[in-house]
Amino acid sequence: MNRTTLSLIAGATALAAVTGFATLKTPDASGDDTAKAAARLPVERTSLLCPQPSTSDIADTAYTSFTPVAEGASGSGKAELQAATEESADGADGKKSEGKATKPVVRPKERGKPATGDTSGAQTPALIGTAEGKFAPGWTVQETTDVAVGTGRGLLGTNCTAPDTEFWFPGASTADDRSDYVHLTNPDDSAAVVDIDLYGKDGKLKSTVADGITVQPHSGEPILLNTLAGDPQTNLTVHVTVRSGRVGAAVQALDDKIGGDWLAASADPAGTLILPGIPKDATSVRLVAFAPGDTDADLKVRLASPTGLITPAGSETLHVKAGMTSAVDLGDVTRGEAGSLVITPSGSSVPVVAALRVVRGKGDKQETAFIPATAPVSARATAADNSAKGSTLAVTAPGEGARIKVTASAGSEGGTAVTKTFTIKGGTTQNVEAPVPSGLKGTYALTVEPVSGGPVYASRMLTATENGVPGFTVQTLPDDRGTVSVPEAEQDLSVLLKQ
After folding, report:
1. pTM of the shown model
2. What b/e readout covers 174-213, taking b as 16+ CB neighbours within 10 angstroms?
3. Contact call for residues 97 and 90 (beta carbons, < 8 A)
4. DSSP three-state, residue 203
5. pLDDT in tens, 9-47
């Protein structure tokens, strides 16, 4: 191995330890030797982006930041969420000038204990967050907004997400009773250029304004989907791709009659998808799916109930034409029990993306939330901003049974952490009786860690009834990517690099 190759490996290893986005292999490693050489190290820096919470003057938004106590992560560090402030060039000398500095909305002081902040009104911008050192591994931020009246009223919640270059959002709409916005947040010092494609029941919608959208540095940009296409579409898939730079993306879906919530991005296209945590009292569930390739997909639709996998009557399969969005109404599919949707190929495996629109309540007392397909919890996942009575944790083991550990953190204003272990039978969904911190004051975080068995998928539902409307929001719990795989060096590469 020559010196140039060693330099590349050393640089890549350092980058992976900082970002947590890479898995490294030496160029000549393969098979078992590679697995043995890999070590898991805590990430040293991570970023999260929170979209602008609301355009309502009466909206109240809470932010909750949490970092679990992680093995191997020690020493100093910090984490903070600050308002996105656009940088612009000064016309006189061409130098960049930043907007007025603002106090961080949230700045946690210790791991294992949530830190909270809040804002009100329509002027709250998008937030850009960075965690370093001991605060980086597993850092999670929840944005929760309460809107009492008006379009999209109800409880809206989302996990703040890491910047990326591609996002899929099945379940959006440009129907007359919907006002859906795709929120783009740019954390970097240079502008990002973004394309937005919309796909309906007949394929891609024509648009002259959805390509080459510029998102200025350190800024958030909400874009109304109705302005990107012509004829209204009830069920849409939104595809966000970044030509240059990177962004955070989320869709805010606001309905005139049945409230609203955030639609998070679906898991990457795959033949098998899990959509966990349908509320047991859901009155209406709609599955929206999209096949991004050139091949139609035939899907088998099953519900993982507390007793096992069942097939919804009349909705056993779904045919999804390539490049087109398909939808099927499943009604009150859970029938009073916890449930998760399991989508598998009924023939050859074709990658798809999918999400659920879920409605609770009846008549003018209805409220909406969304559950996208999500990735499994491979090592650890966290849901922040829980209360003693308003949180429901749903865990699914679609294949082999599994054993999990659930930890309730200390409260944001007081209380002691508590841990319980649960067994999830294969092919089932369980609304587990999640622990609550002893002596709880304030909010707390729930952390899920697999102990043994097959893969598990999880989500957390928050509820809050106001004026008789059963407000709720559901967040899936993908793995927190708190560690990164790096090769173990048999010798000190820094010595070689100085030669």
Report:
1. 0.88
2. bbeebbbbbbbbbbbeebbbbebbbbbeeeebebeebeeb
3. yes
4. strand
5. 334 444 444 444 433 333 333 444 444 456 778 999 999
